[in-house]
Structures are given as structure tokens and as C-alpha cells.
Amino acid sequence: MDEFVPLWDEFQQLRLAREHFPMWTEWGIEDAFTAVHSLGLSYLVTVGQALGFAACAEYPVDPSIRSDGVWWDKVTREPMAIFEFERYKDGSELRDKVQNLLIAYHRLNLQPRLLSLIYWTKNFYPLGDEVTQELWSIVMHGFRTSTGQTITGADPRLLRIFEVQHRAAEGSKFSLKGFSERRRS
């Protein structure tokens, strides 16, 4: 996963975020509607392209799965990374997103080297790590879909989970502070 070190650096430094998304990093946005989701997907495409990947938002990897972000190697044309970006509500949506990542991984012939879930919480209050531990189990052991199809697991080291961190801005707005990685215990 060395090819993703610049991504981890960006998540810490936010250089591209500050350059291209001042409405998120400086001006502040409200935790309303789909503003954070739209900015998150746009940011992932911008970062992917800046790092030399072909990058797309909302890519249909399967008739039933539209991944929030997919990055491809421009030379080999292999899919390198799949992203899901979601708001935490009760935890079931994060499980659904990780299941989507695993299905997409299989549909893309086990080629992606990164499966990443990025989430934020309502009103941007951070969650504890215990919320995310079940997600690695899904990747490691697989799951059965609602239609009874068995989706086999994958190496849990492929999954990287990040929580979007914000700080208070003007009025009821929040600005992007960074991304905190949740670790598997």
C-alpha cells in the first residue's frame, strides 16, 4: 500500500482540500442535506487525480453497487482503490457501505489494493473506536446478502477507516479539521 502514502499525507496536511475546497476548510458548511457528501466525493476525485490516478465518483461497479469513488492505475488500467463516504446514523449504514466495498472488490476481480470507508457523524461529534470494529470482521469473514448470496471475505488489511473531523466555524457551520484513522484492534 505504499502507493497510498501520499493519500495518508493529504489526509493529515489537507493541502489539496485547502486549495480546492475552501468552502469546507475555511468558510465552513452546515451539517445539512448532502453538502458534506458532495464535498467528500469531489475531494476524493481531486486527490486521486492529483496523485496520478484516473478517478471517478459514483462509479457503477455492479448493477446494484455504485461506489462513491474508484481510482484506477492509468498504465495497467487496474482498479486500485474503492471508497465509500457516509454519514454515521446508527451504524447499519456503515455496515452496508463496508459490504458494498467488499462486493465491489469481488466485482473488480480482487484487484483493488485499498478499500476505504470515510464517515462523519451528525453535528460532527466524534465516535469511539468500538463502533468500527465490526466492520473489519465483515471484510475478514464476508457475509450473506439479503438474496442469500455468499460474499467471501478478504484480507482485512485492505480496509482503512477514517472519521472526518471538523471544528466549529462561523454561526452553525463547521470546517474540515482532518481525518482520523480508526485502527483494527
Strand content: 25-35%
What's the main sheet like? Answer: 6 strands, mixed
Percentage of helical residues?
25-40%
Overall CATH architecture: 3-Layer(aba) Sandwich
**How many structural domains can be distinguished in the coordinates?**
1
Q: State the low-pLDDT regions, or none.
A: none
Mean pLDDT across every amino acid position: 93
CATH fold name, please? Answer: Trna Endonuclease, Chain: A, domain 1
C-alpha-based Rg, rounded: 16 Å
Report how far the terminal alpha carbons are from each other: 20 Å
Structural class, by secondary structure, is alpha/beta
Q: What is the CATH level 1 assignment?
A: Alpha Beta
Number of helices: 6
Order of helices and strands: HHHHEEEHEHEEEE
Secondary structure tally: strands: 8
Outline: globular
Which strand order spans the largest sheet, edge to edge or round the barrel? 1-2-3-4-7-8
Describe the structure.
The protein has 185 residues and is α/β, with parallel strands linked by helices. The chain has a single domain, classed as Trna Endonuclease, Chain: A, domain 1 (3-Layer(aba) Sandwich). It is 34% helix and 31% strand. It has six helices and eight strands. The strands form two sheets. A six-stranded mixed beta sheet has the order 1-2-3-4-7-8. α5 packs parallel to α6 (133-141). It is globular, with a radius of gyration of 16 Å.
